[in-house]
Amino acid sequence: MKSLRRMLVYMRPYRRDAIWALVFLVGVVAADLGIPRLTQRVIDRGINEGDLSVVLDTSAMMLMVAIASALFSIGNTILSVRVGQYTGAAMRSAIVRKVQTFSFGNLDRLETGKLLVRATSDASQVQMMFMMALRIMTRAPLWLLGSVVMLALNSPGLVPLMLVLMACVLVLIWFFMAKARPLFTVVQERLDGLNQVLQENLSGIRVVKAFVRRAHELGRFDAANDDLTAQQIRTSVMLAFLFPTLGFIIDVGTIGVIWLGGIGVEAGAFTVGEIVASFNYLTFSLFPMLMLAGMMGPLSAAEASSARILEVLDSDPDVMDAGTLAEMGEGGARVVFEDVCFSYDGEDCIEPVLNHIDLVAEPGQTVALLGATGSGKSTLIHMIPRFYDVSSGRITLDGVDVRDLTLEVLRSHVGMAMQEAVLFSGTIRDNIRYGRPEASDDEVIEAAKAAQAHDFITGFSNGYDTIVGQRGVNLSGGQKQRLSIARALLVRPRVLILDDSTSAVDFETEARIEAALSVLLADEFARRTTVFVVAQRISTVLNADTIVVLDRGRVAAAGTHHELLTLSPIYREIFESQLGSGVNGAVSSRDNGGVQ
C-alpha cells in the first residue's frame, strides 16, 4: 500500500475535518458496542427477574444510544464526503498542473487517453478509498478491538474461539488481496486501451465516415470493450469465492458460540443474557472483517490507480525550467543555432533527428524552412521556445542561451501558429487574445485583419463574440489557421513562428496574409522581430530573406530563392515539381498570389 500512503499528502490540508470524522466514528462504535451490554441487562435483570421498570429504563437508554449513533454517523458521513471530494479535487489539480510542466517529449510518451484516465477514473478510485477509509476501514478495526475487549470482559472463555476465527479470516483476506491487486492493475490498463480507442473514434468520426470504416472501428472498440469486460469478470469471479468463504467461517463461529454457550448455561457458568451479548460481540468482531473483505476490491483498485497517478506525478519534465534570467535586453531577436544536434533518445543522440545544424537568423529577417516530411523542420523550430531541448550544441536568442532564460520569459517573446490550429471553447475574441488577455478590441481587430480573418469573422451574426465550438468544429480548417495566426500576431513576439500555418488556406488568401504581415512587421517594434516560416508549399517561402533546405536532419542548402535555384538540386526539384520550370525561375510580384 506504499503508493496509496503517498497519496495521503493530498488529504493533509483537510486533516481537521478528517480528525473530526474519526471522532464521530469513535462515537458510532462506542454506541454500537453499548447495545449488546444493554440487551444483556434487559434479559438478565429485566425479563428473567420480571422487573418491568428495568426493561423500560434500559429500552429508553437503548433508544438514546441509537439516536446518538445515528447523529454521529451523519456527522461522520458528511465530513468523510467533504474530505474525499476535496482530496480528489487536489489530486486532479496536481495531475493537470504536472502535465502542464511536461515538454513535448513527455507528452509523446504519456498519451492523451492515458492521462485522461489517470485524471478521472484513477483519481476517482483513490478519492473513493479515502472516503471509505474514514467510514468503513477505520470503523472496522475499532469495532473489532472494542468487540474483543467487551467479549473478554463479558465471556473470557469464548475469547480463544474468537481469536481462531479472526486468524482464519485475516489469512483469507491477505491471500485474496495478494491475488486481486495485479488483476485490478490490468483492469485499469484495459480501461486505458478502451479510452484511447473511444477517443480516436470520436475525434476521427468524420474520417471514419468518409472512408466507410464504421465496421472496422466498431470492431476495434468491441475488441477493447471485450478485453476490459473479460478482465473485470476474471477479477469478479476471483472475489466471488471470498464472501461465501467468510460467511462459512462466521457461521462456524456462530455455531461454536451457541454450542459452548449452551454448555456454559447448563453448567451455570453463563447467563442467557451473557450468551446473547457474547453472540453479538462475536458477530461484531467478525462483521468488521467482512467489511474489510468487501473493501479489498476497491482497496486493490485504489492501490493500482495511485501507482498509475504517481507514474505521472513522479515523471520529470524533459525540459526543466532551470533558467535564471527573468528578462531580456531590448535589442533585436537574433536567433543562432550553434552545432545543434537533437535526438529523442536524449544526450546519447543515437538516432539524431537533427544533425549539426548551424543557422543564423537576424532581427527583421524572414527565415523559411523547406524540406520533405520528416526532415526535422518542425522539430528545429520547436527547440526555440524549448518544447524540446537540444541534445548537444546550443540555441541563443540575442546572444543568450535559451536554457538560461526562464521558460515564462522565453515563451512570452515567442509567438507560434501551428499547422494544427487548436482553439478553445469561448468566443472568437477570447481565442485571438488568448496570449494577451488584456489586449484591446482594436488590437484584436488589427491582428485579425493581418491574418485575413476579419472579413469572415464579421460575416457571423455575432462577429467577434461568436462562440467557437469544441476544438473549432464550427469553423473550417483555413478559418482556424487564420485565427491561430491572429493569436500569434497579437502577442507582438520577438520571434514569430509560422509552422505550416497556411496549409489550409488558398493561394490568394495566403498572398494577402503575406502582404499584410509585411506591413504589420514594418513598424519600429516589429522590425526587430525574426520570423520563421515552415512550409510544404514552395510558394509560401519564395520571398523569404533566407530559405533553409533541410534533408534528413541536415542543412542541405541555404540562401535566397534565386541562389538556391542555382546552387541546390533539391530546392530546384521541389520548385519545378510544384510550380514548373521558368526562365531562371523568376518570381513575379505576389500581389495576386501568382508566380511566373
Question: What does this protein structure show overall?
Answer:
This protein has helices at 2-6, 15-47, 52-101, 104-109, 112-137, 139-154, 159-203, 205-210, 214-240, 242-267, 272-313, 377-382, 407-412, 428-432, 441-450, 454-458, 477-490, 507-520, 561-567, 569-579; strands spanning 335-342, 354-361, 366-371, 392-397, 400-401, 414-418, 426-427, 467-468, 495-499, 530-534, 546-551, 554-559. The chain has 596 residues and is of the alpha/beta class. It has a domain at 2-313: ABC transporter type 1, transmembrane domain (ABC transporter transmembrane region fold, Up-down Bundle), CATH 1.20.1560. The longest helix is centred in the N-terminal third of the chain and has 50 residues, at 52-101. Residues 583-596 have low confidence and may be disordered. The protein contains 20 helices and 12 strands. Strands 6-9-10-3-11-12 form a 6-stranded mixed sheet. Strands 2-1-4-5 form a 4-stranded antiparallel sheet, with no helix packed on it. The protein is elongated, with a radius of gyration of 35 Å. Helix 2 packs antiparallel against helix 3 and helix 7 runs antiparallel to helix 9 (214-240).
